[in-house]
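Input/output pair, single chain:
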Amino acid sequence: MTATEGSTAPDFSLQDQHGTTVALSELRGNWAIVYFYPKDDTPGCTAESCSFRDSHEAFIDAGAKVVGISSDSVESHKAFAEKYNLPFTLLTDTGGAVRKQWGVGRTLGVIPGRVTYVIDPEGVIRRRFSSQFAPKKHIDEALAVIAGASA
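Output:
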């Protein structure tokens, strides 16, 4: 099952940066922004994550929770979150099973894809966008989807 617009987001359970298991289904009732990114502490991923951090209050005000997913370890996520004061959850998808389940491919066959999903409070994917080379664009697009749904 891939994660496509209009479908129910596939559930998963992964460990966060504190070693706590988090299931996507726990976020039901709120908007959820799930963004897959290639690697902690790399230039594009840092820019993307820091942009989500800088807009975190806007997401909270919109009733949304932000979750980042990469194949990095719990320890790597913890260091990344602490280094950049990231106030949201980072999940460890070691081996890429969730990435594969959601249909997030690789760029040039090598780099794990950068894909963001906007999921409504009922668990339905309202928007999927991919942009390996414009990581900051995801934040504005995600906020626009929520704002449009609320209007």
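The chain has one domain: 13-150. The chain has a mean pLDDT of 89.
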